[in-house]
Amino acid sequence: MRFSEIHPIVYHTRVFQLRMMRRIRDARSRIRFADEQTTEQLPYTVYNHQSLLRRKLGSLDMKFQENKVTNLELARQPIDGLLIKPDETFSFWNRIGQTTAAKGYLEGLQLSRGEIKTAIGGGLCQLANLLLWMAFHSPLTIAERHHHSFDPFPDDRRALPFGSGASVFYNYIDLRFHNPTGNTFQFRVRLTDEHLKGSLLSKDETPTTYHVVERDHRFLEKNGKNYRQNEIWREVIDRRTGNVIDEELLVKNFAEVKYELNFPVGQC
């Protein structure tokens, strides 16, 4: 265990340092961050996705799910309508900023240092997951993505493969996409009573589409602990012919399982 994980004062000092270091690096970099929002919608749909707003997570109080809905509504506003122009980079935290009570954010669930905790602004990983899944189905490249080191809950109406999401923590654990193309892309994000809905749009029609699949998924046991692993691959499809013209490994996951398994697993 790291010293900063044992002593909270040292931990918070380290977090402050990491945040300052990220600000300095960004100020010195030549990254062009996407910052233009518009209510005018781009004409072509690259990909649509939605996720349930409320899920039963073990015995945890459902009030945190309701608080998450409030947090998602606040966080989606600086992203909805955002244009990502050629050679620009989308940054999750550059758009949202620090989530504070003064801005209206509430206490929600957060995965931190191997544990499930509560924090102001918790629950925004769901928004990051939505954006990442849409980006996987586009020519945008993943400039920065972090993943959780453990699997906290059993699958409950899970729509996406395990490990296909992103971990975010202001501001140095970020989610970033770069636009290497000559096309312009746009995020649209909204909430309904039951879902977080997103669309990735483009100015010009893209020449390819994408199919994201899970491979080699399994549970394993090692030294008395259970683990889960898989690979997430992307097939690149020519829009004109429908042929698969390329495939690439996007994510390789190996994470400790934090819940009881009611079936036998293999050894690793």
Question: Could you please describe the fold and organization of this structure?
Answer:
This protein is an alpha+beta fold and 268 residues long. The protein folds into two domains: 1-30; 32-206, no CATH class. It has five helices and 15 strands. The chain has helices spanning 3-6, 8-28, 63-76, 92-96, 125-136, and strands spanning 36-37, 44-52, 82-84, 89-91, 107-112, 115-120, 141-144, 150-151, 176-178, 185-191, 195-202, 208-222, 225-238, 244-257, 266-267. A hairpin with a 3-residue loop joins strand 10 and strand 11 (195-202). The longest helix is centred in the N-terminal third of the chain and has 21 residues, at 8-28. The two termini are 23 Å apart. The mean pLDDT is 91.
Task: Describe this protein with a few key phrases.
single chain; 268 residues; alpha+beta; five-stranded antiparallel sheet; five-stranded mixed sheet; 5 helices; 15 strands
